Amino acid sequence: MQHAISISKLSKVYDSGLAALQEVDLDIRNGEILALLGPNGAGKTTLISIVCGIVNATNGKVSVQGHDIISEFRAARERIGLVPQELHVETFETVWDTVSYSRGLFGKKPNPPLIEQLLKDLTLWDKKDSKILELSGGMKRRVMIAKALAHEPKILFLDEPTAGVDVELRKDMWQLVRRLREGGVTIILTTHYIEEAEEIADRVGVINKGRLILVEEKSELMRKLGKKQLTVELNEVLETLPEALGGYDLDLENGGERIVYRYNSQAERTGIGSLLADLNRAGISVKDIATEQSSLEDIFVTLVEESR
Amino acid sequence: MNFEAVKAIYIFEMARMRRTLLQSVVSPVLSTSLYFIVFGAAIGSRIEEIDGVPYGSFIVPGLMMLTLLQNSISNASFGIYFPKFVGTIYEVLSAPISFLEIVLGYVGAAATKSLILGTIILATAHLFVPIEIRHPFWMLFFLVATAVTFSLFGFIIGIWADNFEKLQLIPLLVVTPLVFLGGSFYSIEMLPEFWQKVTLANPVLYLISGFRWSFYETSDVSVEVSIAMILLFLALCLGLVWWIFKTGYRLKT
């Protein structure tokens, strides 16, 4: 099956000697939402910039729906829309003009009804004749999204789309992303906000120090790496853990009122049954129990720390 | 060929001229009128004819060239520098367009603006002095070739400049002196022999001389040499622009 984007052995060394990407291999499927996570300076933006033609790669190949980004740059680029991280917008032009300009730049004939719909979808319609200079930061962000979508791309890159954006716009953005996906658009977003990836991504890729550490279905990732913990509230304060419970990974918390048991939800035997039985046998009286699953954020932090 | 993109850039750039109509059009017309008052009326009344052409009429081609060169460079350099400065260049770089199309859009718009200005200057000059154009075709050739060449040159400056000072540096320190010393306001025959020879090293001399020839059939150097020189500059600038896009100089990291 042809991929939306196919990246092989992609490397980038900047003139300063900084190796921003090291032999990255990544296949992005048509129609999926892929979230690229990674700390600042991990290489996320460099990766996107190479695919979009803004940065030259040092080594490696990239193709967009089968079209090489160098030898078939026209076919590759017209499929892509990019919303960069920084707020780069013209200042004195009107919203309508700048969005129409973007469409022309990508070789598409003017289509006012489409631009109108786009501006309405992004709640920019009543600002269409305003100069961009007069807009708020959030509105400028919307303008950049409208510009990226003006030529009806098949693939959309959102580089930190919700950095410094208020809750309302963030929710709007998520809705837009889902709607675009329903229309068959492949979406790649980079983000710091793990809850964003958790909320909307199908797959998650983690980049650190120019290396792609892993790419995994989000649910699979959480299942594989997700640790669960069982919290046992006690009726009586416990000074120390009884020796009989030495075989479990336990912590005594909250001044001895609570026992926390960490276990792997993937394991065949979670050990919960025997733990409870052992607690009973040791004469410890249980008030309440609860289980929690670790979030994508915990997983991410663990992964990045492991790759250090 | 991505015509829609060329059109989009061209229209976008021309829109900027409309927004800044006052400074784009009114100020060159004003400064030309001032030149006429100072050189034409005040000083010109003391200068006899040059090669049978009244002094006021003699300086018209030089004045047009002065405006053409300055405006081609400033329009084109600003046109490409500004997107670099505010960061919107990302969009041009990520669009499915070749370097030729980018140049056609930006340089085409800058050259168009200069040509409009040149025409306005000619019309303004016509109010002050009698003008005769003996070779309209060659006059148009020099006008267009100069506008395009120096818009290309401005485009190169705009890409090279990484701050506003650099943007002003070459026009101010190199181009303006060359234009003034290239015979805009005099025939080089009026200079001592040594300085005549020095002036021959000034590329702008050939442009002004050829352009003036198309008006009055008088020139400092032969018109063939002028035509060859302008084509040479054009080729040089094209070569440089091609190299810039090939290497991504100052555009891509």
From TrEMBL, chain A:
PANTHER family in the cross-refs: ABC TRANSPORTER ATP-BINDING PROTEIN (PTHR42711:SF10)
Family designation: Belongs to the ABC transporter superfamily.
Keywords for this protein: ATP-binding, Nucleotide-binding, Transport
Record-annotated ABC transporter domain positions: 5-234
InterPro entries: AAA+_ATPase, ABC_transporter-like_ATP-bd, ABC_transporter-like_CS, ABC_transporter_ATP-binding, P-loop_NTPase
CDD domains, alphabetized: ABC_DR_subfamily_A
SMART domains noted in UniProt: AAA
Protein name: ABC transporter ATP-binding protein
GO MF terms held by the record: ATP binding
Naturally occurring in which organism (per UniProt): Chelativorans salis
Pfam families documented for this protein: ABC_tran
UniProtKB/TrEMBL annotation, chain B:
PROSITE patterns: ABC_TM2 (PS51012)
UniProt keyword annotation of Transport present: yes
TM spans (from-to): 21-43, 55-73, 140-161, 167-186, 227-245
Similarity section: Belongs to the ABC-2 integral membrane protein family.
Membrane topology according to the record: Multi-pass membrane protein
Keywords: Cell membrane, Membrane, Transmembrane, Transmembrane helix, Transport
Signal peptide positions (record): none
InterPro entries, per the entry: ABC-2_transport_permease, ABC2_TM, ABC2_TM_bact-type, ABC_2_transport
Higher taxonomy: Bacteria, Pseudomonadati, Pseudomonadota, Alphaproteobacteria, Hyphomicrobiales
Name of the protein this chain belongs to: Transport permease protein
Domain spans labelled ABC transmembrane type-2: 19-248
Cellular localization per UniProt: Cell inner membrane; Membrane
Annotated organism of origin: Chelativorans salis
Main localization of the protein described in the UniProt heading: membrane
Pfam family, one: ABC2_membrane
